[in-house]
RNA sequence: GCGCCUGUAGCUCAGUGGAUAGAGCACCGGACUUCUAAUCCGACGGUCGCAGGUUCGAAUCCUGCCAGGCGCGCCA
């Protein structure tokens, strides 16, 4: 067990049992990182009243029964009753030594859960925008992290591939020709295609009529219409996959589970909800009304599962996703990485599913994605007010990174520089999305996300590049840097202690579904490494054993940073 | 009107009910014959929106208020 907090928690619990009786042995020992020691146990203050003793008395009793001599160098009662715990240097060194031969870097394998993750969800024949970027990047990081923790992750890309706009889109595709340049726009600039179709729909009455008729044909399964519809989706998939490739996202065609895949479930869902008395007709629409959901003037908010024209909306489809994921995918947790504004809608969907008895023991979780804002504090758009094209935005990030690389590394060949610029530019954008709490809005700023200082992708990538440079210079293989690890210098100690935090952090990210905690950890680790790098020569260490130890610390930092970035979906280039 | 979210340093953001609330940027002062100075060190900077409450202890939990954002019946 490498996690100091966990080790100390168990020891303190034993002491609690010994000091106050077995009924206290499972009390939370409240171990926290401390500014006065490595950790502090605050349990004495929490239990003092219950024990009818002063907090310092309680702390003294705990310390008296506390057996940590192998782990801690110093145990001290401080202030009103804090127990300050300082780890032994050798204990820290031994734990880092363990990490060197542990491919999981101290991360436990958890009991396997089935976890469908719904993320990305772009629309066919529509440009992805920065909102899609964020759900894609965050969802992908969660998928990678949960998989690493041992879970069975089922990626679900709930693309918008059904609905009334398809009449207009299909009709437009038919007019321009499936092999035309206009149709090819779907692969590169889908909004241009969509807007052309829209313009015809709004301006041409005959076209609009044909489009409406086409929707009916689509819904009734007309073969030729379905073929065209399928074409649209194929062309759009090319666009999606271009974006996913560029972004280094793990989504593939196998993960596509668009709205249309649930079509057959929608009617039966409405029937079942009606039979169960959950759904009633109101103003011609089939609705579910739930207690506690009221809107304007106290009127109950309906979840409309069948529109008055007989069509189905997204509420029904979302209900279908729950049913499918519970019944077919055997989900334990169902993760929806979706915009924060849909919170009310999703709560109603979850509650409806629960009342219908579809949820079982599965837990649906909404990972709320906050809006991405421009520097003006409003939803990010171009100066003309149009949504920003995602590919153009990614290109700009790479271009900016490219300019910096050209300036700072002129000696590298063009191909190498381009590869670095690509990793840094894309990594910067992704990391910016990941490093901020997913449910808050954040201000998009190229200059800040590409900065080499601060909690940025490039800063972490640079730390990795410097480490690799050390091994390159020394003609050494990180895998051969096996120590033994010695901890003497303060910077060595601080770095070693940080290294022990990786596993616990990954576990926390899996529990809370908050990737920004991993970012904060990695940033902290990189800072500790940089301080170490400044203070402790590695290759030029004056003694062989010190050199071997520092190489081992450096190698452990390398694998931790690379693994952490990998879980986030951020590449770490060989050099920068 | 109801509901959800947010309010922390000039700016962008962290912050597990624990001691003196942190980081990056910006500003100021230092550090390159050195494993990548694109990196580091230091200083400056706070009535944690306001007011109550719970608690031994509150940025954190509860209530009210203020400000901003978003949502609230046939788009998704």
Automatic annotation (TrEMBL):
Entry EC no(s): 6.1.1.19
Per UniProt, the keywords (alphabetical) are: Aminoacyl-tRNA synthetase, ATP-binding, Cytoplasm, Ligase, Nucleotide-binding, Protein biosynthesis
- What reaction does this enzyme carry out catalytically? tRNA(Arg) + L-arginine + ATP = L-arginyl-tRNA(Arg) + AMP + diphosphate
Task: Give the Arginyl tRNA synthetase N-terminal domain ranges.
Answer: 6-87
Give the location in the cell. Cytoplasm
Q: Which SMART domains match?
A: Arg_tRNA_synt_N, DALR_1
- UniProt motif 'HIGH' region: location: 122-132
Q: Which PANTHER family match?
A: ARGININE--TRNA LIGASE, CYTOPLASMIC (PTHR11956:SF5), ARGINYL-TRNA SYNTHETASE (PTHR11956)
Protein family membership: Belongs to the class-I aminoacyl-tRNA synthetase family.
User: What binding partners and quaternary form does the record give?
Assistant: Monomer.
Protein's name in the database: Arginine--tRNA ligase
- Species for this entry: Thermobifida cellulosilytica TB100
